[in-house]
Amino acid sequence: MILGFLSDSHGCFEALEKGLEALRRHGAEQIFHLGDSVGYFPGWSAADALRRESIPCLKGNHEAMLLLDEQDPAKDPMTQLGTTARQASPVQLEWVSQLPQSLRIEQDDVRILMVHGSPREPLREYIYPDTSLEPFFDVDADVVVMGHTHRADLREVGGKTFINTGSCALPRHPGGLGSAAVLDTGTGHGELIRFPIGTETRKAAARLSLHEEIINRIAQYPES
């Protein structure tokens, strides 16, 4: 079975849709979202799309901050969590509150652990492409899939496959391409997918009020 993973859509419906389309073109039969469906792009358009399509989702640090009313006033003009919280309906808040911090599945005898941050700190620990994975060699899973860093990575070490999907909406790696990942559980082969999101993120920016730093970042993304 081909599984698809993406993360950190951060309220950008247009980029999320681009990521979902890319995963389906690569044959994804089941798709998972690894957290941070809100933040930076204010509102609920991405989260609502995930809910409508019944895509299994994890809770990220942005959902957790929104629920706990941990918005930092100094950072809120960038994160937009306060604005997003004020726009929330009871249905949206209920959906976010029930999101799990981790998810384990087994498919074709492949044990998969999904988290937003890391196996030891599911919400907030950053696992970058140059972070040592040795502390996670004893995790009870064959494949560990993560997000949070906005930097895509795939490594096969310690007898396991570690995948970081990167971000489908606000990538921080060079090149400015959105990213996602697929895993063929029949063969054990994982693959990173990259796709341009410049047109999509700028379309979202045209209808929303974004922080200047976010506007400057997406201005560097190549056209779709």
Written account of the structure:
With 224 residues, this protein is of the alpha/beta class. The chain has a single domain (2-219), classed as Purple Acid Phosphatase, chain A, domain 2, CATH 3.60.21. Helix content is 29%, strand content 22%. The strands form two sheets. It has a five-stranded mixed β-sheet with strand order 3-4-5-7-6, with no helix packed on it. Strands 2-1-8-9 form a four-stranded mixed β-sheet, with helices on one face. α1 packs parallel to α2, α1 packs antiparallel against α7 (198-207) and α3 packs across α5 (81-87). The two termini are 29 Å apart. The mean pLDDT is 96.
Report the CATH topology name: Purple Acid Phosphatase, chain A, domain 2
Rg on CA atoms, Å = 16 Å
- The H-and-E topology, N to C, reads as EHEHHHHHEEEEEEEHH
CATH class: Alpha Beta
Q: Any idea what the shape is? A: globular
State the CATH superfamily name.
Metallo-dependent phosphatases
Secondary structure tally: strands: 9
From the N-terminal CA to the C-terminal CA, the straight-line distance is 29 Å
Which structural class best describes the helix and strand composition?
A: alpha/beta
Number of domains: 1
Mean pLDDT: 96
Low-confidence stretches: none
Instruction: Report the portion of residues in β strands.
Output: 15-25%
Our count of helices gives 8
**Helicity range:** 25-40%
Please state how the strands of the largest beta sheet are arranged side by side.
Answer: 3-4-5-7-6
